[in-house]
Amino acid sequence: MIVSPNPARTLNAIGLIVVCGVLIGAYFFQFTLNELPCPLCLLQRVAFVAVGYGLALNLIYGSKPHHYGIMLIAAVYGGSVSIRQILLHIVPGTGSYGSPVLGLHYYTWAGIAFFLVILGTAIMLLFEGQYRKLRDEPSHEEFGGQKLAKFAFFLLLFLAAANAVTTLLECGPLICDDPPTGYKFLEQLEKSG
Fold first, then answer.
1. Are 91 and 82 in contact (CB under 8 A)?
2. 1 contact partners, CB below 8 Å, separation of at least 6
3. Residue 45: closest CA among 70, 67, 74, 68
4. 51: number of Cβ within 10 Å
5. Which whole number is the average pLDDT over 167-177?
6. Of 85, 89, 90, 91, residue with least CA distance to 110
7. CA gap 3, 174 in Å, rounded
8. Which of 57, 114, 117, 184 could form a disulfide with 67 if both were Cys (CB 3.0 to 4.6 A apart)?
């Protein structure tokens, strides 16, 4: 079954796919335009992964208020980082980071996305019926039968691991360069080898 009998579960799966889409989009620009993410951009990616984690918990264990709480905390954190970056570049002539997409920079889009996560999560919290176990709703042992949920979950796992690896390659084991100039860890390996 692709769509769950519980609309909240389906909405959480769709939300997780959207979060994964945002992360895939960030990688698309990183590798096609060679625009390395700055330290604030990397923190926003971490916040998106954390939002995805809350959604994944809802998919695996069923909707719970504390899973939505994780999403809210992550979205507030990510939104704060986005606003910090927007404020760094808001004055005309001070420069910006990355190419604009539809007239807005990535960090502005991230701020909008985090606001929408907060709004969507708050709306989902209003529907208490999602917390009742439905007779037809699979338990977490039957999670594998939900194709959309399973796909979204494993996609998030892959993207979280990819984010950790690419961040290590870009920053090395220490502090990231701001602005980044290349994949520091790979450059250090070339120099030592």
1. no
2. 145, 146, 147
3. 74
4. 29
5. 85
6. 85
7. 44
8. 57
- Best CA proximity match to 130, nearest among 14, 5, 16, 2: 5
Tokens of 70: 């994780």
In terms of phi and psi (left: phi > 0; alpha: psi -120 to 50; beta: otherwise), the region of 62 is left
Token output for 192: 């030592």
pTM: predicted TM-score of the whole model, two decimal places:
0.86
Cα 102 versus chain centre, distance: 20
Separation of alpha carbons 98 and 34, rounded Å: 10
10 Å Cβ neighbour count for 80? 15
The DSSP result for the chain, as a single string, is: --S-SSHHHHHHHHHHHHHHHHHHHHHHHHHHS--PPPHHHHHHHHHHHHHHHHHHHHHHH---HHHHHHHHHHHHHHHHHHHHHHHHT-STTS--SS--BTTB-HHHHHHHHHHHHHHHHHHHHT-GGGGSPPTTS--GGGGGG-HHHHHHHHHHHHHHHHHHHHHHHHHTTSPPPSS--S-HHHHHHHHH-
pLDDT at 131 over 60: yes
What is the C-alpha to C-alpha distance for residues 168 and 161, in angstroms, rounded to an integer?
Answer: 11
Q: What is the pLDDT of residue 143?
A: 53
